[in-house]
Automatic annotation (TrEMBL):
<comment type="function">
    <text>This protein may play a role in the biosynthesis of the prosthetic group of nitrogenase (FeMo cofactor).</text>
</comment>
<keyword id="KW-0535">Nitrogen fixation</keyword>
<dbReference type="InterPro" id="IPR005973">
    <property type="entry name" value="NifE"/>
</dbReference>
<dbReference type="Pfam" id="PF00148">
    <property type="entry name" value="Oxidored_nitro"/>
</dbReference>
<dbReference type="InterPro" id="IPR000318">
    <property type="entry name" value="Nase_comp1_CS"/>
</dbReference>
<dbReference type="InterPro" id="IPR049939">
    <property type="entry name" value="NifE-like"/>
</dbReference>
<protein>
    <recommendedName>
        <fullName>Nitrogenase iron-molybdenum cofactor biosynthesis protein NifE</fullName>
    </recommendedName>
</protein>
<feature type="domain" description="Nitrogenase/oxidoreductase component 1">
    <location>
        <begin position="45"/>
        <end position="443"/>
    </location>
</feature>
<comment type="pathway">
    <text>Cofactor biosynthesis; Fe-Mo cofactor biosynthesis.</text>
</comment>
<comment type="similarity">
    <text>Belongs to the NifD/NifK/NifE/NifN family.</text>
</comment>
<dbReference type="InterPro" id="IPR000510">
    <property type="entry name" value="Nase/OxRdtase_comp1"/>
</dbReference>
């Protein structure tokens, strides 16, 4: 069995997955996530998933060993943000051609590319990604990376996650395996302390982790490594000296959290920073884990004081929106941690949840939704586009929260829509993030454009309206009739 096949089988046989533990030995090896057949990796391939997890490490050069299209189609596929280095914004590829493949020049070209990046940019590390083409022709990127690391004196990390091996989620996990095998534990920090933690599966989309980190700073808690959001290579390499960890997206990096607990005794829990209650609970559990690992118990009191202060400020800000949003109906078409954390967050201010997608959710995520909604009829595994359209066009929801792929369904149904996936422009984590989320929902629902677009077109209006419009002889009378029936008040058309 090849090393990649063994790695994939190991990733699928995940002991920390509740669903996987409930299977027999044979079924357990098939894993929690079924790999897709080549060419059918809908929603992203394994290479795409590995890139999502590793590219937010901002001071690393990410080199794609592939024809040009692989990097061109996968670059910048997440709205992660950096507070410092911008090297991750530079796109590197070996740009293999047909001649390189036929003549067997791929490995030589890869070694040359590593040398050029080292000389031009001097990064602390270079991550080299295999792809479908290079894996199929048998390129040994691990040997090339090992030789380059010895030659150039820097870390060169092979990421063996060609697209054809499975889905994007599998690629997430293979990226975690690459960090475990080649990065985490390779550097010993000289400043390890009792209040160091890791945050795993947090991507800093739209810079939202920057709304959470100040809360931890006020408690004296240092984020040793946030993987991968706004991370630095050295921080990730020293992550094994953290005292506790919080898992934000278990469907992506549960294998990383579990193996770090086994190897370095770093306990972890799964939590969320979406919503006021969930943010407060996450802070409590972080502090409690640190105390178990030897931190001063007084941090528990400081945590409660901070929570009381921040919750008071947040609820005061949200009070202005409650009368406007009370009873509004929301349809959530997302997955993973957002499938339950946003449900709880929105219900806190009186918004009704008419449905939430659980396609990418774990068994724990689904159980949380059942506990929150008290009814699993509002959960759907996958809803076809025509079903979403029918639900929205029949006004069963006042707004849909989803990713960019389904925005046009909402727009066609003349229903407000808000982006809550990786392309979003606003951060929604923490106390301030919850206020921002509610503000954006309020702006979307009460935007006057929706009332206007739902009105019938002039040619579809009742005959009485058409007759009165056609009977007017002067331009002024026509404008007055139009104002009467269409409600045009923003512009004085008669003055034109």
């Amino acid at each position: 069995m090849s090393s990649l096949s063994a790695k994939i089988q190991d990733v699928f046989n995940e002991p920390a997955c509740d669903r996987n533990r409930g299977k027999d030995a044979k079924a357990r090896k098939e894993g929690c996530s079924k790999p897709l057949t080549p060419g059918a990796a809908a929603g992203g391939c394994a290479f795409d998933g590995a890139k999502i997890v590793l590219q937010p490490i901002t001071d690393v050069a990410h080199l794609i060993h592939a024809p040009l299209a692989c990097e061109g189609n996968s670059w910048d596929n997440r709205g992660a943000a950096s507070s410092g280095p911008t090297l991750w914004r530079t796109s590197f590829t070996t740009d293999l051609t047909e001649l390189d493949v036929v003549m067997g020049q791929g490995e030589r070209k890869l070694f040359k590319a590593i040398r050029e990046i080292k000389e031009a940019y001097g990064p602390p590390a270079i991550f080299v990604y295999s792809t479908c083409v290079t894996a199929l022709i048998g390129e040994d990127i691990e040997a090339v990376c090992k030789r380059a690391a010895e030659k150039f004196g820097l870390a060169v990390v092979p990421v063996d996650a060609p697209g054809f091996v499975g889905s994007k989620n599998l690629g997430n996990k293979l990226a975690g395996e690459a960090l475990l095998d080649h990065v985490i534990g390779t550097v010993e920090p000289d400043d390890a302390g009792p209040y160091d933690i890791n945050i795993l599966g947090e991507f800093n989309l739209a810079g939202e982790f920057w709304l959470v980190k100040p809360l931890l700073d006020r408690l004296g808690i240092r984020v040793r490594a946030c993987i991968p959001g706004d991370a630095r290579y050295l921080d990730v390499a020293c992550a094994h000296r953290a005292r506790a960890a919080m898992m934000v997206c278990s469907s992506a990096l549960i294998n990383l959290a579990r193996k770090m607990e086994e190897r370095w005794e770093i306990p972890f829990f799964e939590g969320s920073f979406y919503g006021i209650t969930e943010t407060s609970e996450a802070l409590r559990r972080i502090s409690a884990l640190l105390v178990k690992k030897g931190a001063d118990p007084e941090i528990l009191d400081r945590t409660e004081t901070l929570i009381a202060q921040e919750e008071g400020i947040a609820w005061k800000k949200l009070a202005a929106y409650r009368p406007r949003l009370q009873g509004k109906r929301v349809l959530l078409n997302t997955g993973g941690v957002k499938s339950w954390s946003l449900v709880h967050a929105l219900m806190e201010i009186g918004i009704e949840i008419v449905g939430t997608s659980v396609k990418k959710s774990t068994a724990k995520d689904k159980e949380r939704i059942k506990q929150i909604l008290k009814d699993d009829n509002h959960m759907f595994e996958q809803m076809a586009a025509r079903e979403l359209y029918a639900m929205l066009s029949e006004h069963k929801a006042d707004i849909m929260l989803s990713g960019g792929r389904t925005q046009f369904i909402a727009l066609k149904a003349k229903t407000p829509w808000l982006d809550i996936n990786q392309e979003r422009q606003h951060p929604y984590a923490g106390y301030d993030g919850m206020v921002e989320l509610v503000r954006q929902i309020d702006l979307a629902i009460h935007n006057p454009i929706w009332r206007q677009v739902r009105e019938p077109a002039p040619w579809d209006r009742p005959p009485a309206v058409k007759d009165e419009l056609s009977s007017t002889k002067s331009a002024t009378a026509t404008v007055q009739a139009f104002k009467k029936f269409a409600g045009a008040t923003a512009v004085d058309f008669g003055a034109c």
